[in-house]
Each structure stands twice: as C-alpha cells, then as structure tokens.
C-alpha cells in the first residue's frame, strides 16, 4: 500500500496497544487461546491528548476496496440495511469500523457491533461509546490510517471468531492493533461493547 506517513501522527504520543477481545478461541492445533474482551493487554501506553481530525482531508480507509464493495457500503450508509455488508471479510469490516469512527457515524457503528443480546439501546450505546471509547478510537484511527498491513490471524480464528491484525511500521518500530470480530446473523461484526464495558467499569473504580 503506497502512502505518505504525514506529520499528523505527531499530534499525539504514539502508543502501542494490543487489545485482546471477545471470547476464548480454539486454534487449529486444538489449543485454547485467550481472546477475551474481558482481558485487555496494554503492551505499551503513554499519556496523550485527544488529537483533532481534519475531516476536510480526502481520506478513507476504504480506498483499496473494490468499487462493488464501496457501493455496498454506500448502500448501507443510505438505507441502513446491514445485509449490504454480508459479503465483507473481517478485514474489510475493521476498515469500515475505522471509517465510521472518522465520520462520527455512531448510528452505523452500533449496527456493526456484535450484539449477542447484550447491547443496550442505541442511544445508551452511543452515549457510553462517546464517554469511554471514542478518544482512544480517534487516536487509533490517526495512528493506523497509513497502515502497512491488515491481515487475518488464521491460527487464532475460527468459523465464528475472527482475529484481525492492523499493523504499521516506523523504521525499526512495529505497532500492531488486534481486533476481534464474531459471526452474527450471517455477517462479521466487531466486538466493541465488551471492551467498552471494561473501560466503563475501570472509570468507576
């Protein structure tokens, strides 16, 4: 992927976060790998202020998607029909999530979030997302917008659980973000809510 790693990354102190989310995953070797959003591992973290996103800059996380996939995404935005995204891979759903964060489209972010009969109503979800997770996701959006690679961890993924790695390299520094997704209603959905509940619980301690 050709890109320019612009100075926009300097607006905050770079942090490397590896988030382990959702539920136990059994690898192809039969071993159990802890991939639970009840366990978050911070490999390295630093204090930072919330950066400002320049939404006048013509950027999208979807630039490498096919024209057909982009049209399906636009259909989803216009009519809210989640079925438009059923053919999207886990990697593509992560990129869609990033784009929705950039667009502040929390209504559609709610739609692609894994439910499992645990999600609150949309209004409550959006309010809690803004309070507990938005700042972190904005930083991740900015840091990984010029990502070098996005890939599926095939060893840790199953038919119903997908682990996606989003990676960026600066010289000898290698940063990786891990996103879990789960199959629901015949499509891949991102597991945001379990992590959001953990962030909320920690803020109330």
From TrEMBL:
<protein>
    <recommendedName>
        <fullName>DUF4878 domain-containing protein</fullName>
    </recommendedName>
</protein>
<feature type="signal peptide">
    <location>
        <begin position="1"/>
        <end position="21"/>
    </location>
</feature>
<keyword id="KW-0732">Signal</keyword>
């Amino acid at each position: 992927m050709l890109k320019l790693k612009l100075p926009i990354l300097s607006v905050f102190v770079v942090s490397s976060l590896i988030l382990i989310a959702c539920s136990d995953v059994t690898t192809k070797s039969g071993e159990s790998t802890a991939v639970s959003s009840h366990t978050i591992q911070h490999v390295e973290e630093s204090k930072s202020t919330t950066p400002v996103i320049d939404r006048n800059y013509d950027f999208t996380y979807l630039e490498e998607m096919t024209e057909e996939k982009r049209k399906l995404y636009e259909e989803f935005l216009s009519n809210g029909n989640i079925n438009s995204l059923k053919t999207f891979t886990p990697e593509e759903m992560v990129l869609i999530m990033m784009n929705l964060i950039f667009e502040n489209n929390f209504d559609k972010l709610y739609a692609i979030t894994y439910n499992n009969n645990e999600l609150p109503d949309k209004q409550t979800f959006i309010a809690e997302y803004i309070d507990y997770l938005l700042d972190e996701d904005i930083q991740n959006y900015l840091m990984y917008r010029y990502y070098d690679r996005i890939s599926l961890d095939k060893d840790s993924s199953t038919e119903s659980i997908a682990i996606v790695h989003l990676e960026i390299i600066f010289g000898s520094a290698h940063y990786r973000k891990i996103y879990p997704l789960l199959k629901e209603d015949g499509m891949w959905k991102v597991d945001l809510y379990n992590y959001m509940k953990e962030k909320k619980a920690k803020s109330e301690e």
